[in-house]
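stage 2 :: seqdesign
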């Protein structure tokens, strides 16, 4: 990832990637100004049905009758006759990126459209000026009945659905800009998700204006039928799946914020967020060559992998399984994240050996020998007869076992510890000690109880060469060595009743350069010398030294392990996921997977746009908008949703660019137990006016809403929160909360709050919190006293103020959003 060292780097990147003008000649353009003739001409050029033309003309009459809003920012410079309302760049729309004309394709290549679509998106629509130029939806979603395309195409191909829903949530009579959009709308996106379909990859629309004095009036219509879902996935593993924390593996459900986990690089990184959600769908089990490392995840979760087809050869397959691979191709291939459902048996997934080490001088080779033998043969128990705790090591009858017992006895004596060497009546050898120091050492670093033993953090962080001493002595006590012919390779096998210890031994072996297979021998009833016993599960760790032919290949600290089997089954329970800083990955039973939440940069906030969202019974929609229009844009979209029984609507909005912004995403909670949330970040730096907020109407019982808005104003900027919340009579037991916080950077800037709350139901509960503050010079001085430059100190305070809301924006894996925030703040000189 490229690091931006200063503000100029950010500015330069923005100029290169975003702030460019493409020299494109439109194939068609209406004259300037708005009239009935212009609207009829547009409709005729689009070959629209008569019903749509009538809607446009009726909206035009309403537009003429409506005044320009005067209750907010000054819009007096807006002259509707100066604008061009319709521009088309191409005569046909493409469904394949290669079919898009080169000049247009170059524009969106610079915005990363095809790359994002290829890796992270279920579908995408691209629009330049008034018309969509490209749309595509992955086949897997088409097959389930999902429809995603530009709005103009939807009018032609799905007229019944569009006609039923168009303009019902936001009628043209709502406001002057709504009437204008309805009269001259062009482009936008249409998304229809059938009942019960869980659209677990985001869909994304890209909108770009390419010249001054033009109007862009997109129309977005989203329909989520009952029990459908359109959102960013926030959890992909079942609760019991084991995640590597470096010193141990723990269930993902127990991992907390600020915990460290091992990432795909082998380095540790901090967990910044955890996710939990109910899941009802397909769960996949990957069974690698090492069966004991089998793990489960949902179908959309990205796994670090190499497709076998990309490295295969024409050699005859061994054992009649999969095609042979080129070792050279495989070890030089670059692993990439692949959705779980796109992987096949034979593909390679990546086992990662941790790379971070921390030596401990107190862990001498002698103590590591003791601990290795204790992990294999040792136990701690309380002897009632002598009323003391005893450390014991048990060995067999053979001369080899006797020699090992004698060696251990001599080692303990050389360390100055009390020890006994005993030969039992049955001919077995035991080494015991009452030394509290030795007992504490063994219990602290290995634990006690055969099935509960696990190595301490200190041992798991030791350099590989010191861990090798521990491993060798463990294998001397609990391992078997076999010479495999004809190549005389050495196979080593050990077993333990401790699942955790088996995974730790596998990790230590990997850190020393060899991949070990892990398998499980299930326990059960057995009989020994006429006595019935219950055997516990045994975890077998096995590897071959200097193996001539191996299906596993090593590259650096990575081991490429083939998938032997993939199992799919229905799953209905909670699933979990993590957000991990820097690396955006973690290890599941040693194998690398991605955070899963997709890195995307969505521009849905549109100039004079309308967004209508239908959230039907038990459906869920999340709509994310990051707006970064240039500073000459007046941005006045109308966004509204209808939320039916048990439906959920989530608005997430970041407002960075534009000269004037007036946007207030709204939700009407029409069904019982419907809910909505609205998270809003606005930066008004420079001569700009950010008039942002939210509207919620509780129109049914047991509905809930939450509004969180944060704004920053500087360099003479104005930031306004304007909200309306209404709980209607009869909306029993409804709950609502509003929180709006403002930070003012200087004396030239302002921040105002205009809440309008109507609580008309006595059983409802409502809370409203608001705060306005300035950067404290005491805070700046304190940070500067710690060696931080003044501009960096102000940066830390500003970004800290935004942090809790920014974490909620589902763009956590996109560096683009952070770049845009830094760029906007660079106008003030506060972020370097």
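stage 2 :: out
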């Amino acid at each position: 990832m490229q690091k931006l060292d200063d503000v100029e780097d950010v500015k330069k990147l923005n100029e290169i990637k975003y702030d460019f003008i493409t020299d494109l000649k439109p194939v068609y353009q209406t004259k300037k100004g708005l009239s009935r003739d212009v609207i009829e001409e547009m409709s005729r050029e689009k070959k629209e049905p008569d019903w749509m033309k009538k809607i446009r003309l009726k909206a035009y009459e309403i537009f003429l009758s409506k005044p320009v809003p005067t209750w907010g920012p000054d819009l007096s410079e807006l002259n509707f006759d100066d604008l061009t309302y319709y521009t088309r760049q191409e005569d046909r729309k493409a469904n394949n990126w290669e079919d898009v004309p080169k000049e247009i394709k170059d524009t969106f290549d610079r915005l990363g459209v095809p790359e994002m679509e290829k890796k992270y998106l279920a579908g995408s629509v691209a629009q330049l000026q008034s018309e969509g130029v490209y749309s595509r939806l992955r086949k897997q979603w088409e097959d389930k009945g999902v429809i995603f395309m530009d709005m103009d195409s939807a009018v032609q191909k799905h007229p019944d659905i569009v006609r039923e829903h168009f303009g019902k949530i936001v009628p043209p009579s709502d406001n002057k800009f709504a009437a204008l959009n309805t009269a001259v709308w062009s482009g936008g996106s249409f998304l229809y998700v059938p009942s019960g379909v869980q659209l677990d990859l985001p869909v994304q629309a890209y909108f770009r204006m390419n010249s001054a004095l033009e109007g862009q009036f997109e129309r977005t219509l989203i329909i989520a039928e009952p029990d459908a879902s359109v959102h960013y996935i926030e959890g992909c593993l079942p609760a019991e799946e084991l995640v590597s924390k470096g010193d141990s593996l723990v269930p993902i459900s127990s991992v907390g914020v600020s915990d460290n986990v091992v990432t795909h690089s082998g380095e540790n990184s901090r967990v910044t967020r955890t996710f939990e959600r109910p899941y009802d769908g397909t769960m996949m089990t990957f069974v690698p060559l090492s069966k004991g490392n089998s793990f489960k995840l949902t179908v959309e979760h990205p796994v670090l992998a190499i497709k076998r087809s990309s490295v295969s050869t024409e050699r005859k397959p061994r054992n009649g399984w999969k095609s042979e691979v080129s070792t050279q191709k495989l070890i030089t291939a670059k692993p990439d994240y692949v959705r779980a459902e796109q992987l096949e048996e034979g593909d390679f997934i990546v086992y990662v050996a941790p790379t971070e080490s921390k030596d401990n001088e107190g862990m001498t080779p002698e103590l590591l020998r003791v601990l290795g033998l204790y992990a294999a043969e040792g136990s701690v128990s309380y002897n009632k007869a002598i009323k003391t705790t005893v450390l014991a090591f048990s060995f067999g009858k053979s001369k080899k076992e006797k020699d090992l017992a004698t060696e251990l006895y001599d080692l303990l004596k050389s360390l100055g510890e009390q020890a006994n060497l005993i030969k039992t009546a049955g001919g077995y050898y035991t080494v015991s000690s009452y030394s509290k120091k030795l007992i504490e050492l063994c219990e602290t670093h290995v634990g006690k109880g055969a099935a509960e033993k696990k190595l301490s953090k200190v041992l798991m962080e030791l350099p590989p060469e010191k861990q090798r001493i521990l491993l060798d002595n463990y294998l001397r006590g609990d391992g078997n060595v076999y010479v495999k012919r004809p190549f005389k390779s050495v196979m080593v096998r050990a077993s333990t009743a401790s699942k955790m210890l088996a995974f730790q031994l596998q990790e230590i072996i990997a850190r020393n350069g060899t991949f070990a297979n892990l398998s499980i021998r299930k326990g059960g009833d057995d009989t020994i010398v006429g006595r019935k016993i219950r055997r516990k599960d045994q975890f077998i760790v096995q590897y071959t030294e200097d193996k001539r032919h191996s299906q596993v290949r090593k590259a650096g600290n990575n081991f490429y392990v083939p998938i032997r089997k993939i199992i799919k089954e229905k799953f209905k329970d909670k699933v979990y996921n993590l957000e991990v800083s820097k690396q955006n990955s973690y290890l599941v039973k040693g194998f690398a997977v991605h955070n899963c939440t997709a890195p995307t940069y969505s521009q849905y906030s549109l100039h004079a746009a309308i967004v209508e969202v239908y959230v039907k019974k038990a459906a869920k929609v999340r709509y994310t908008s990051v707006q970064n229009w240039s500073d000459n844009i007046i941005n006045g979209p109308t966004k509204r949703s209808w939320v039916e029984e048990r439906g959920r609507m989530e608005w997430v909005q970041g407002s960075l660019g534009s000269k004037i912004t007036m946007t207030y995403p709204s939700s009407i909670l029409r069904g019982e137990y419907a809910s909505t949330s609205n998270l809003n970040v606005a930066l008004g730096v420079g001569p700009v006016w950010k008039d942002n907020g939210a509207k919620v109407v509780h129109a049914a019982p047991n509905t809930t809403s939450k509004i969180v808005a944060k704004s920053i104003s500087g360099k003479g900027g104005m930031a306004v929160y304007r909200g309306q919340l209404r709980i209607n009579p009869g909306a029993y037991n409804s709950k609502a909360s509003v929180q709006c916080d403002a930070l003012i950077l200087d004396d030239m800037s302002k921040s105002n709050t205009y809440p309008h709350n109507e609580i008309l139901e006595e059983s409802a509960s409502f809370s409203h919190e608001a705060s306005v503050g300035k950067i404290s010079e005491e805070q700046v001085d304190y940070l500067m006293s710690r060696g931080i430059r003044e501009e960096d100190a102000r940066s830390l305070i500003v970004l800290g103020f935004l942090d809790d809301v920014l974490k909620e924006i589902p763009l956590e894996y996109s560096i683009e959003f952070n770049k845009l925030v830094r760029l906007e703040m660079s106008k003030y000189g506060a972020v370097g």
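stage 3 :: structure notes
- The two ends are 18 Å apart (CA to CA).
- The first strand starts at residue 28 and ends at 29.
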